[in-house]
Amino acid sequence: MLRIAFIGQENAFSKTALAPLLLPYDPRWKIALVVTSCERVGTFRMHKLCMPSQGAASSAPTPHERILNVPHLLTTNINSSTAHDHIQAQRIDMALCVGSDRLFSQETLRITPRGFLNVHPSALPKLRGPCPLFWTVKNGMTLSSVTLHWMDAQEDHGPIIDMRPFKIEPRATYEQLHRAASEAAIPMIRDALLRIVENRLQSIPQEHSLATRARRPKYTDVQIDPMQWDIEPLANFITMARGVRTAWMRAGDETFYFERAERTEPLATLPGSHVRIDDRVLLQCKDGVLHTQIQTVNNT
Q1: Is the Cβ–Cβ distance between 7 and 173 less than 8 Å?
Q2: Considering the chain, what percentage of its residues have pLDDT values greater than 90?
Q3: Which listed residue, 30, 137, 173, 176, has the most CB atoms within 10 A of its CB?
Q4: Which residues contact 57 (CB under 8 A, 6 or more apart)?
Q5: DSSP label of 296
């Protein structure tokens, strides 16, 4: 049986994929360990291994622990020798990463005999890096893809195994977008694992010359000029950006931070670039007017 370590974080992208992969599907493979990257583990510890009985008895189990029937490693640094020892002690053959907060070292990538797979929410080699869905929505795209590829020591760089499309739904939150990408990945992962156990998996190198990078957005990346946007893409961007950092605009002496996009008026016009009515701001876009609610206190 192929024993797999599932590596992720406490977020929608990881958890959406984990739950169905823990269910019995094919007797030739199983998730034998879950590894969750955390900012901290308790007060003084960097790693914690929870066996199934311990997770059930925990006074404050994490969402992952509540659904696990396999060992669960929480770690602040998967590249550490302690994390490596815990993973190897579970006799892991292969690792599957669905959401990581860091690059894996060469030493980490060597701890499993059959390598590391990674799920990335973009059509690689486009939008490598930590925030592809932010840039997907900012670029006004309504369709994206999720890619399964082999990992190497470079960022989202290894050979591609498979790719599946998914829709960017209107007014989707950042969490909802990650959930949609993860749901699209589940059948792709299962199909790849089937091909691995049957020794018929193939992959193709990425076209590295076409690569772009989706860096973490800066404060200026969420600044908007409504008159450069169509109303629907701007409504989608304001909604999504709340999960990363709040969209904002400067109008004269005022700065507006957007809580939500509310409704649109196609083809409508305003006497200027915007109209403020209490905590509502109407924005003049290229093809109409977008009604928004703003924050009365900046929470960025």
Answers
A1: no
A2: 84
A3: 137
A4: none
A5: S
